[in-house]
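not sure who needs this but someone in the group chat was asking about YdhG-like domain-containing protein from Blastococcus brunescens so here u go. i didnt clean anything up, its just raw.
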Amino acid sequence: MSPAKAGGTKRPIESSADGFSAEERAAMKECAAELTAAGRRSGKAAAEEADLLARIAVMPSPDGALAERSHTIVTDAAPDLAPKLWYGQPAWARNGKVACFYRSGQADKTRYSVFGFDEEAALDEDGGMWPTSWAVTGLDDAGEALIRRLVRRAVS
């Protein structure tokens, strides 16, 4: 629509040879920069998730299955958490800071694996003490429900 039809006022629009005004070109450049940055972020997130899944894939049984199930639970309960590796183990972060993690007992050469929370998690309770990690030797329905509930609480 021409300026005369839109508002009744005729004013010339200064445009370059490509037909766009300086303001339009600036807006297009800004939009392109935003899309490029978003693509880098999503590309980085996809690469970090691929690294996490590759690490889980090489974990010996039963740790690999427990880590994979933990990943599914966490990403379902808190889709905003970003998967990443933390000390070579699966973790999920908010704003680059780890909120929760899974540590393979076999990789760490310890008695059991651990699902835990770091300082980014909002698990604080009254009384000055609260649990931040759980030994994991299996995941039944009750264990899955506990992780799901804690992850939701951690990011609330």
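also The chain has one domain: 16-154. if thats useful
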